[in-house]
Design goal:
Number of strands: 2
Structural class: mainly alpha
Helix content: 40-55%
Radius of gyration: 23 Å
Distance between the termini: 56 Å
Largest sheet: 2 strands, antiparallel
Amino acid sequence: MPPDLSPGGPGPANGFPWLHFFASIGWVCLLAFFFAEVEIQIKGAQGWAAGLPTWRIEQHWLLDIFWGGRPMTGYHA
């Protein structure tokens, strides 16, 4: 007879709710790591998307306030 996998019935997660919690936290951390690595590779060695082929606003007084004087690019918008 196959195991009962209906909601609330006996199943692998019902006896170990902490296991499901830590597995979820681990999965989120793993995804965060990979997305961070992709962003680092996209920005490149120059940083701040300096080498990306996108539009940019180099000089504006609001950039000094909100972006610390760095240019705003289509990647960051």
